[in-house]
Specification:
alpha+beta, five-stranded antiparallel sheet, two-stranded antiparallel ribbon
Length: 124
């Protein structure tokens, strides 16, 4: 999928009918909460002080975190940020930024959500 396709898909699936920053933030919150429920495998793709690149981790069911503190927050700097996801690696738990993960799940919703988010945060 090229950049224009990603942009179009995000506009059609995530931020459709959003008119301001708060609506966009809420739309992302709903979209990610629906798609990142349940545990799934992921690979570390960015240098991280806790877990080496290319290691496979298990992203834990983070739905409770989304309910308690919200997934995405709008900042006045015109940037979005996402909470860290809790992962398990070598019988330990870590908080890892979603941008440092590549989903290995066969669930298309999970893969799509992470790809869209990573595109949104870097390109939109």
């Amino acid at each position: 999928m090229d950049k224009d396709d990603y942009r179009s898909q995000i506009e059609d699936k995530v931020i459709v009918d959003c008119y301001d920053d708060e609506e966009i933030s809420n739309a992302w919150d709903c979209y990610m909460t629906e798609r990142l429920c349940g545990s799934f495998p992921a690979k570390i793709v960015c240098k991280n002080p806790k877990i080496p690149v290319d290691e496979v981790v298990t992203v834990k069911d983070n739905l409770h975190q989304f309910d308690e503190i919200g997934t995405i927050f709008w900042k006045k700097s015109d940037a979005y940020t996402i909470d860290y996801l809790e992962v398990q690696w070598n019988n330990e738990e870590f908080d890892i930024d979603i941008n440092d993960l590549e989903a290995l799940d066969k669930n298309n919703d999970t893969l799509e959500a992470i790809k869209y988010w990573n595109y949104w945060i870097t390109e939109f």
